[in-house]
């Protein structure tokens, strides 16, 4: 059933795409601020192709990534990528990730009125830069509430968690000019009094990043070095 032949669609120093004959495509991936769960300590396999096939064969439904060392032939099976998990070390070699949104942990559709978003809510304390990087590593971006319905969806998710949460907005480059972190587009100031809490933003002690208070579901500018939960969204 499992054939070990593969097609190397693109393989060089920077990238390598491996298409297995069993219908799965894995892409060689460099990661930072996220990494795969390890399903096993690994074994010595005969080839890159065999490593991928055996990962799928042994861990059906759970193999979303694998690591392969092209000198020692160590094969380490991996699950979904998660924020702040470590990437492959020198012993494990290169990381190959399934070419599918399913390879990234926690994502699912959430809706409010006209807004439907594929998102993942990570209740892990990170600073703003780490939140941006973790979302990028997970092939997504920090949540951007660019409409009233998306804002209300975000507020609905945050309500009741008893913890503030980063949103993908900042005025790091120009004080007072807030932009969305995913594309650099300016925040529509018509929503300032609706989205932000009273007397905010105030840039108290040089606050350049934006988070939502869990108790009143309003935005506040805060220090980018503070740590809060975060939500990633896929476009």
TrEMBL record:
Keywords: Disulfide bond, Signal. Residues 127-233 form the C-type lectin domain. Gene3D superfamilies: Mannose-Binding Protein A, subunit A. Pfam families: Lectin_C (PF00059). Residues 1-21 form the signal peptide. PANTHER family: C-TYPE LECTIN DOMAIN-CONTAINING PROTEIN, LITHOSTATHINE. This is C-type lectin domain-containing protein. It comes from Biomphalaria glabrata.
């Amino acid at each position: 059933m499992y054939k070990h032949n593969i097609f190397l669609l693109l393989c060089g120093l920077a990238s390598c795409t491996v298409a297995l004959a069993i219908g799965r495509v894995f892409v060689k991936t460099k990661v930072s601020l996220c990494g795969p769960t390890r399903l096993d300590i690994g074994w010595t396999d005969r080839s890159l192709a065999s490593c991928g096939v055996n990962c799928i064969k042994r861990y059906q439904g759970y193999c979303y990534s694998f690591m392969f060392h092209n000198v020692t032939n160590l094969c380490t099976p991996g699950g979904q990528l998660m924020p702040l998990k470590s990437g492959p070390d020198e012993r494990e070699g290169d990381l190959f990730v399934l070419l599918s949104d399913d390879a990234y942990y926690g994502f699912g559709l959430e809706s409010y009125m006209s807004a439907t978003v594929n998102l993942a809510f990570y209740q892990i304390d990170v600073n703003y830069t780490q939140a941006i990087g973790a979302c990028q590593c997970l092939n997504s971006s920090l949540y951007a509430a660019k409409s009233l319905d998306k804002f209300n969806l975000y507020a609905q998710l945050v309500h009741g968690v008893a913890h503030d949460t980063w949103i993908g907005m900042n005025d790091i480059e120009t004080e007072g000019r807030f932009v969305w972190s995913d594309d650099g587009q300016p925040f529509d100031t018509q929503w300032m009094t609706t989205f932000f809490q009273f007397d905010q933003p105030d840039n108290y002690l040089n606050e350049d990043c934006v988070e939502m208070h869990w108790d009143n579901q309003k935005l506040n500018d805060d220090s980018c070095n503070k740590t809060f939960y975060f939500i990633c969204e896929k476009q």
